[in-house]
Design brief:
heterodimer; A: 338 residues; mainly alpha; two-stranded antiparallel sheet; 12 helices; 4 strands; 6% strand; B: 252 residues; alpha/beta; six-stranded mixed beta sheet; four-stranded antiparallel beta sheet; 9 helices; 37% helix; 27% strand; globular
Chain lengths: 338, 252
């Protein structure tokens, strides 16, 4: 037992002793121990069922989750091709969604009722109908409604004519459906970001002569980014998974690729696991990416940028040293920094 | 020709009439201090001068040109956005709440006008910005971000940012009202130097000492009209109007 330095304790322990010299008894947390044990047991059960348990199927005893099958198909060519399609759709839909979203947000904030009204109607329509229905509209509806798509004078002659079926492939229909739907959601996110920026910022920018466009691009949007980035990260992660919906209009993306294999080998669950592992892998990467983008746009908002996980690790390593027993007179409630 | 001339300037927000016919004239190199209770229309008038607010009636001109309009024959043509911007670039404005751009360093704040509006090359603009920051006593803060500075320092950066555009007129909208008392002095010192260099200034302020010492004219506004104006010592020590007297008795 270490005795904190300070005046020597009085032998009798009467309550009028100097509190600075007394030993501190920390609060006990018995329930933390109970919940800790429960979680430990549940974890052990999970690991056991995932890795070590077996089951008899069709007369043969095999691992419950068939990790061997998962490993076999994880890097199969059709799966990798599906991943490419999934990533392409995600990137296209998010880039187009952000562009449409910024445009709609600026339109909605415009003083012109025609601009703000049309943006409102766009958002109302695309947010008000399920994306799955929209996908089928792009896939089936367009070709049914318009056999040819003309480029030319409105109500006049067509200069170029496309056949709808050749122009709108399943991939194009999927990309269009996801992009237009995402635009509606991004519009609201961007609008929230823009109106979160103090009006004084636009006034100051205009007072030094910046045009409205410059004010938006140089002053308002960079500050709005701090509000826009976290939900946009959510949207990107959500989009990566939503792309699996285009499997319903015959686009062979990651999920459909695994399903195609599963229908021939009947190994449904292992191939669901293959798809899940890949989705998890990419959403993890996006999460890390989002952290760094957020950090970048925190410049000027936080007095000091939060450390990156790598810097935290470095600090932790540097700070691992025997903690000296501080005399109580050096108040322990003073923050360690500054 | 006066730098700023206002004739019967009216301004309303909906049914609320904020300015009820302001007549004012500010000569070149003159320092005019606008005082009055809150809601009297001082700030609104100031914002009309650089067209942050549009006037509803009367005429307002800066350096001989109407604010927001171009006269041709017997018609007034509203200026295009780009023309309004060009006019604003000639007028510096300092706000009560500083309004520095928080995502940019102090130096980038100061060069933002020259580089983005005047398309000046960034090298010389930075040199000039460093000089200006040295002038307001912040030579060592060029690389800081606004929220690392005290209010008084931020306001001095804001003044440097306005000066970087070489304005012919400076508007101050209660520049010291958001500051801790001990930081007010530094900002007023910078403004005093500016006045002595001959800058035309319109200052909305509650600093009566500053108005008396630096102002060439003091204008007392109340309820959207100019109640009284004249020599600072005279207006502040021997106000003629009852409303001026009662206002001054509360703030002095």
């Amino acid at each position: 037992m270490t005795v904190p330095p300070g005046p020597p304790p009085a032998p009798d322990g009467r309550p009028d002793r100097d509190p600075a010299s007394l030993k501190v008894v920390p609060v006990r947390h018995p329930w933390r121990w109970v919940t800790g044990v429960v979680i430990l047991v549940l974890t052990a059960m999970l690991v056991n069922t995932l890795l070590f348990s077996h089951v008899v199927r069709g007369g043969t005893r095999e691992g419950r989750f068939q990790w061997g099958v998962v490993g076999h198909y994880l890097f199969a060519t059709p799966v990798l091709k599906g991943i490419v399609v999934t990533l392409e759709l995600t990137v296209i839909a998010m880039v187009a969604g952000v562009v449409i979203g910024v445009l709609l947000a600026v339109m909605r904030l415009s003083p012109s009722p025609l601009l703000s009204g049309s943006a409102w109607i766009y958002i109302w329509f695309f947010r008000g109908t399920p994306v799955l229905v929209q996908l089928f509209f792009w896939y089936d509806g367009i070709a049914y409604l318009y056999q040819h798509l003309d480029l030319g004078v409105p109500f006049g002659t067509a200069l170029i004519t496309f056949n709808s079926n050749t122009l709108i492939t399943t991939f194009v229909a999927g990309a269009l459906g996801l992009s237009f739907n995402e635009g509606a959601y991004m519009a609201e996110i961007v609008r929230a970001g823009i109106i979160s920026v103090d009006e004084g910022q636009s006034e100051a920018a205009q007072s030094i002569g910046l045009s409205k466009t410059q004010t938006m691009r140089r002053i308002v949007l960079p500050q709005a980014m701090r509000i826009i980035i976290p939900p946009t990260g959510n949207e990107t992660i959500s989009m990566l998974k939503t792309t699996s919906l285009v499997s319903t209009i015959a686009v062979v993306e990651l999920f459909q690729a695994t399903q195609n294999i599963a229908t021939t080998t009947y190994q449904v669950v292992p191939l669901l696991l293959v798809a899940s592992l890949w989705y998890l892998f990419f959403t993890s990467i996006l999460t890390v990416g989002q952290y760094y983008v957020e950090r970048y746009y925190a410049r000027g908002a936080a007095r000091q940028l939060p450390p990156t996980p790598f810097q935290k690790l470095q600090m932790a390593v540097r700070h691992v040293r025997p903690v000296p027993v501080a005399p109580l007179a050096e108040a322990p409630w003073v923050a360690p920094h500054d | 020709m006066p730098m700023v001339e206002a004739r019967k300037v009216h301004k309303s927000y909906g049914r609320l009439e904020v300015l009820k016919g302001i007549d004012l004239s500010v000569g070149r190199g003159e320092v005019l201090c606008l005082i009055g209770p809150s809601g009297s229309g001082k700030s609104t008038f100031l914002r009309c001068i650089n067209h942050l607010e549009k006037i509803d009636g009367g005429a307002l001109s800066v350096d001989g040109d109407l604010v927001g309009y171009r006269q041709s024959g017997d018609k007034l043509y509203e200026l295009k956005d780009s023309e309004v911007c060009a006019k604003r670039a000639e007028i510096g404005m300092v706000f009560q709440r500083f309004n520095l751009f928080p995502h940019m360093s102090v130096l980038d704040n100061v060069i933002s006008g020259p580089v983005w509006v005047k398309k000046a090359p960034s090298g010389p603009s930075k040199d000039r910005a460093r000089d200006l920051l040295a002038r307001v006593g912040l030579a060592d803060k060029v690389d800081s971000y606004p929220n690392q500075l005290s209010g008084g320092q931020q306001q001095r950066v804001a003044i440097a940012r306005a000066l970087a555009m070489d304005p012919k007129l400076m508007l101050f909208d209660e520049p010291t009202s958001a500051l801790d008392p001990e930081l007010v002095g530094d900002v007023l010192d910078v403004m005093r130097d500016l006045a002595h260099e001959g800058m035309t200034m319109i200052v909305v302020t509650h600093e009566m000492g500053f108005a008396r010492e630096v102002g060439d004219t003091v204008v007392f506004m109340d309820g959207g009209v100019v109640v009284e104006q004249g020599d600072p010592t005279q207006v502040l020590t021997e106000p003629q109007h009852v409303r001026t007297q009662s206002f001054l008795s509360k703030v002095l």
